[in-house]
Design a protein that fits this description.
Blueprint (H helix, E strand, L loop, with lengths): L3 E7 L3 E7 L5 E8 L11 E2 L1 H18 L7 E8 L4 E5 L9 E2 L7 H8 L8 H4 L8 H11 L3 H6 L3 E5 H9 L9 E3 H4 L5 E2 L4 E2 L1 H7 L8 E3 L2 E6 L8 E7 H8 L8 E5 L3 E8 L10 E6 L7 E8 L3 H9 L9 H6 L9 E3 L17 E3 L7 H27 L6 E4 L6 H11 L3 E4 L4 H13 L6 H7 L2 E5 L5 H16 L7
Parallel strand pairs: 1-5, 5-14, 9-12, 15-21, 21-22
Antiparallel strand pairs: 1-2, 2-3, 4-7, 6-8, 10-11, 13-14, 15-16, 16-18, 17-18, 19-20, 22-23
């Protein structure tokens, strides 16, 4: 039996190939960046050919580093930057245009036009998403409307669409020579074209967007054998596919309703497993597919995003010069006992979930002569924990599922002071895993499950190792008082922009 499982992790700035053993430990890794293309303000593109070339490079690189061949791998999975859109000619394999990246805002005109009939939530009941430039559907429409001959070719069935997972899997399984054209439920749920209940493309929305169904991939489970790889991985089953945030949820083994993971980066992405029925959000969260294992029922999630978390620490470093490097914020925060009565609301670009107020701006409130830079550093860290509490309160209200524990990953989880305060503010344990590479691990798990390398999700739970757990130490009365003051501080940022 093959000893390992591989994972292609195709991200926004780079591509990695990682090899894991049966215990979920990293055996080999190789990584390469790709070019970020900015043709106009607000436009962000990638070259899909470059991404595929980098993918081939890192596969070969990781195998060589560990002296492995395709025969050593039981399966390979794929995880990807979500919503980034590629349209290509199925006969030549050539993209008709660069990939339009998830961050790109050129489709705002399309979204505004679509929102004139039914508002921003026109399709939300069906797809769980508001009309926004973030998602793939309007990006496909832009390519068909703006690239010469694209619409006519698409109608004739000569063009294919995919998010990056689909593009990679198609090329990995042969491309023009029999490549498999698929996407999993988690990626399909980010297009604004998939019906949450049928798990199939929605005919009405396709018609409104002007997207021919014949260019769309087949929607498949996140864990199933799609085909066999060619090239360096010749003969290896391609058997896992998950969008990056869903892959992190899977890698964190959040398989039960009420289990959540939070990724602490520049901002925060939080996903809560809500079970096998979609939960519509009344609090500005996204309803999304978590994963689907083979023939088992699909699992749904609520997703919340926070704009400014790690970015606030960078701001203290770069704009104020309070610290020399980001890691120094913890030591500075620990020079004081508490926040000195101040609250720092980092609404630098408005407030995201659960408020969605673009007219808000950042504020530090409660200032007195007593306050020093240590208090500012502590208040900055506490802002991340308070914002996380707000999103989780929204999730609990939407789902009726009470959070049991929060599994965390990302760069800020090595800040013990923040993690302890996070546990205190939530009133639940906060848990950091031993393997931090949860995104690639999730894709490997999905692939390994499909071929029997791991027998069941219980095996994956057994693999999951706890590096550290923080439990609440704060009295409920103190927690409630701090949170009440935070909520009051947030209201002071509303309607700042006239």
């Amino acid at each position: 039996m093959a000893k390992y499982v591989g994972a292609i992790d195709q991200g926004t700035t780079s591509t990695r190939f990682m090899v894991f053993d049966h215990a979920g430990k990293v055996v080999a890794v190789d990584q390469k960046e790709h070019e970020q293309i900015y043709p106009k303000p607000g436009w962000v593109e990638h070259n899909p050919i470059e991404i595929w070339d980098r993918t081939k490079d890192v596969i070969a690189g990781a195998l060589a580093k560990a002296n492995l061949t395709a025969d050593d791998l039981a399966a390979v999975g794929v995880t990807n930057q979500r919503e980034t859109t590629v349209v290509w000619d199925k006969n030549t394999g050539e993209p008709v245009y660069n990939a339009i990246v998830w961050q790109d805002t050129r489709t705002d005109v399309i979204c505004n036009k679509l929102a004139k009939d039914g508002g921003q939530n026109r399709f939300r009941r069906k797809v769980g998403l508001p009309l926004a430039t973030y998602f793939s559907g309007p990006k496909i429409k832009w390519i068909l409307d703006n690239v010469s001959e694209a619409k006519a070719k698409a109608k004739k069935g000569e063009l294919l669409f995919g998010n990056i997972d689909t593009w990679v899997i198609w090329n990995l399984t042969g491309g023009v020579n029999g490549g498999v054209h698929v996407t999993d439920v988690s990626n399909a749920s980010r297009t604004m074209l998939m019906n949450l209940n049928t798990l199939d493309w929605d005919p009405e929305i396709l018609k409104i967007m002007g997207v021919p169904r014949n260019m769309l991939p087949k929607i498949v489970p996140s864990s199933a054998v799609y085909g066999e790889a060619v090239g360096s991985l010749k003969g290896v089953p391609v058997a896992g596919d998950l969008g990056d945030q869903q892959a992190a949820l899977f890698g964190q083994t959040c398989f039960s309703p009420g289990e959540a993971k939070n990724t602490y980066g520049t901002g925060c992405f939080m996903l809560l497993n809500t079970g096998t029925k979609p939960v519509q959000s009344k609090n500005g969260l996204l309803t999304t597919l978590g994963y689907k294992i083979g023939d088992h029922p699909a699992v749904y999630c609520l997703e919340g995003s926070i704009a400014i978390t790690g970015a606030l620490v960078q701001w203290l470093r770069d704009n104020l010069g309070l610290i020399a490097k980001s890691a120094d914020v913890e030591a500075l925060a620990n020079t004081v006992e508490d926040n000195g009565g101040i609250y720092f609301v980092p609404a630098f670009s408005g407030l995201f979930a659960p408020y969605w107020k673009s007219d808000a701006r950042g504020a530090i409130v409660g200032m007195t002569r007593y306050v020093n830079k240590g208090h500012i550093a502590r208040a900055a860290l506490e802002a991340t924990a308070f914002q996380t509490r707000e999103v989780l309160d929204a999730m609990n209200a939407d789902s009726g599922v009470k959070l049991k524990a929060l599994k965390v990953d990302g760069g800020m989880v090595f800040n013990d002071t923040l993690m302890q305060f996070q546990s205190d503010v939530l009133g639940v344990p906060v848990i950091r895993p031993t393997v931090a590479e949860t995104t690639a691990l999730g894709a490997a798990y999905a692939a390994g499950l499909a071929v029997g390398y791991w027998k069941a999700v219980e095996d994956l739970r057994a693999n999951w190792g706890k590096d550290h757990e923080w439990t609440p130490k704060m009295a409920a009365k103190q927690r409630d008082a701090l949170y009440k003051s935070w909520k009051k501080a947030v209201t002071r940022t509303f309607k700042w922009v006239e």
